[in-house]
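Run folding on both entries below.
>entry_1
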Amino acid sequence: MNKILDKLGVYDLIAVLLSGISISTFSILVLQLVYKIPMDVNFKVNETLSFLILSYFLGLIFQECSSFIQKKTIHRNNGLLKTALKTSNDSHIFLTKIEKDEVYAYVINKLKLNPNENNDNVVYNYCKFYILKNSDTSRIDRDQSISAMSRSLSLYFALLTITVLINIFFQPQFVKFILIVISLTFTFLFYYRCKRFNKLRYINIFRTFYYNVVVK
């Protein structure tokens, strides 16, 4: 089992498998408690393995779909990267102006870029690939995994909200109104977490590069 977990990696475990298990489990609860569909959840060994495999592929589907949506929305025109690059000397989370300016100066000088152009993508990619190759990325990997899992769950609860909204017109029930409120809450909560941890990943890449390369 340990060898299997090592091969899967942190990203697959958290972003794909754990999100898939969460989606499968919550879906079973909704079908049982809201739609009164009887389901046997006393899994045996073979059934548990099937549940994990199904959950993994379910998580993979939501992962790819949510990734596509993310690229077309919050990642469009580098919107989230630009937000992450905003500086603040009063916060331990955001980059300070010195950190950002010196990282940019280092990479621009190293690659001989035009300082008057928008170099956000080039500078970020240079820092990212350097850090991935030469530094401990456990914290960065964790932020990426949590962001990806939150992205999948946000999409799931958004689809669940839409599905229940359509169903409630034909079979109105008070419990479904409660489910809509819960689903909407989780949709925005996980969307917020997705953006927050994605932004933290950007910041940690720049900050790690600054202290491991520029300051040295």
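>entry_2
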Amino acid sequence: MELPKFILGDNTDFPNAIYVIHTDFPRFIINLENDEVEWMEEFDEHDQRELEHQTEGLIQEATDFYDREVSRYDE
């Protein structure tokens, strides 16, 4: 099965939280309510340095994805 790069998620147990799931490496879930990131990968020291360079861009991509999806509901 081919998954999209980003998926929106929510949960009624956390009514204010909006989640964006990144399905490519490095996989993560970001809660846009508080910008908390949960990584779904384990990283070695080399990966950790690379991840630090990518993190800001990945989070921006997740936020842009959310904004795009929400704007489509308003159309």
